[in-house]
Design a protein that fits this description.
about 60 residues; mainly beta; two-stranded antiparallel sheet; globular
């Protein structure tokens, strides 16, 4: 049985510096996603077309 995980999703465009701004924090993604729209799950994973692009710990304030 899998545990339910609360997640919020949003769409962000990757900047030229390979970063997306999520909740006033910047997270890097692979350069191949520059200028692409990516779906960001606020549990600290970024996805593009159902493929994980990057994962990192969430930065707490």
């Amino acid at each position: 049985m899998t545990a339910n995980v609360f997640a919020e999703w949003c769409v962000r465009r990757v900047n030229l510096d390979y970063h997306v701004n999520v909740a006033d924090h910047y997270y890097s993604v692979p350069h191949r996603f520059v200028r692409a729209e990516v779906e960001v799950r606020l549990t600290a994973c970024t996805w593009r077309s159902s493929t994980r692009a990057s994962a990192m710990p969430r930065i707490s304030a």
